[in-house]
């Protein structure tokens, strides 16, 4: 594919204004690399947490497997366990939303501090 390029003399002020406009619209390579490093760090932290949680689940499953089979759990205790599980699930979902909103908030703060407008690539 042939590429047609023309060169023209452009005043320095106009050239710097255009470069500044492009720089404000797009993320730099250094920022992109830092974002990737941050994302990898988060993935590693989450991987460790998931590993810890899996070990806890396995420990609890082993503990319940050792419980005598003839003993039944009364209905009141089962309802409490169901309520506790439901509340834990709802709390986890709410915390996830809070953390996502916090990330969005800090991204907006960073964009505002950098002089970028929201919604632009970057």
SSE inventory with pairings:
Elements: H1 12-25, H2 29-66, H3 75-114
Write a structural description.
The protein has three helices and no strands. The radius of gyration is 27 Å and the shape is elongated. The protein has 122 residues and is mainly α. The two termini are 29 Å apart.
Q: Kindly, what is the distance between the CA atoms of the first and last residues, rounded to a whole number of angstroms?
A: 29 Å
Low-pLDDT stretches? none
Number of helical regions: 3
Strand count: 0
Estimate the mean pLDDT confidence.
82
What is the ordering of alpha helices and beta strands? HHH
What structural class do helix, strand and pairing data support? mainly alpha
**Can you tell me the overall shape?**
elongated
User: Largest beta sheet, briefly?
Assistant: none
Tell me the fraction of residues in β-strands, as a range.
under 5%
Instruction: State the helical fraction.
Output: over 70%
Spatial extent as radius of gyration: 27 Å
What structural keywords apply?
3 helices; single chain; mainly alpha
